[in-house]
C-alpha cells in the first residue's frame, strides 16, 4: 500500500467530489483553502486508485463533512505527490525493464 489510512479516508471524499456532480464539496474546499488544485495531486490520485480500486461506477464516497486533512499545508501535498510520482515511475518502468523492452513496445 502506498497511502496511509488517513490519506485514503480523505481521498475517498476528495476523489468522489472530483468525479461526481456537482463536482466539489468539503474536501475540495479544504484543498483549495491551502492553495491546492486537482492537478497538483495527480500522483496522489493515482495511488488512491491503485490502493483502493473502485468496486462500482462511482469513485470514493460522498460526505457532508470532510475528514481531517492528512497534510499540513500545500508544500506537504506537493512533496507527497512528488514522492508518489517516483514510486509511480518505478512501477511503470519496472515491467518493461525486466523484459528488456522499451515502454512503447508491446510483446
Beta fraction: under 5%
Uncertain runs:
101-107
Order of helices and strands: HHHH
Number of helices in the DSSP assignment:
4
Shape: globular
What is the domain total for the residues? 1
State mean pLDDT (0 to 100 scale). 89
Could you characterize what this model shows?
This protein is mainly α. It has one domain. Helix content is 55%, strand content 0%. The chain has helices spanning 5-19, 26-33, 42-51, 74-99. Helix 3 crosses helix 4. The longest helix is centred in the C-terminal third of the chain and has 26 residues, at 74-99. It is globular and about 40 Å long. The relative contact order is 0.19. The model is unreliable at 101-107 (pLDDT under 50).
Amino acid at each position: 500500500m502506498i497511502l496511509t489510512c488517513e490519506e485514503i479516508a480523505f481521498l475517498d471524499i476528495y476523489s468522489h467530489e472530483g468525479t461526481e456532480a456537482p463536482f466539489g464539496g468539503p474536501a475540495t474546499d479544504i484543498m483549495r483553502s491551502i492553495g491546492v488544485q486537482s492537478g497538483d495531486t495527480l500522483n496522489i490520485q493515482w495511488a488512491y486508485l491503485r490502493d483502493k480500486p473502485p468496486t462500482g461506477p462511482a469513485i470514493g464516497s460522498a460526505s457532508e463533512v470532510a475528514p481531517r486533512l492528512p497534510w499540513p499545508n500545500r508544500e506537504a501535498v506537493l512533496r507527497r505527490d512528488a514522492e508518489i510520482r517516483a514510486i509511480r515511475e518505478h512501477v511503470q518502468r519496472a515491467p518493461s525493464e525486466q523484459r528488456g523492452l522499451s515502454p512503447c513496445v508491446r510483446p
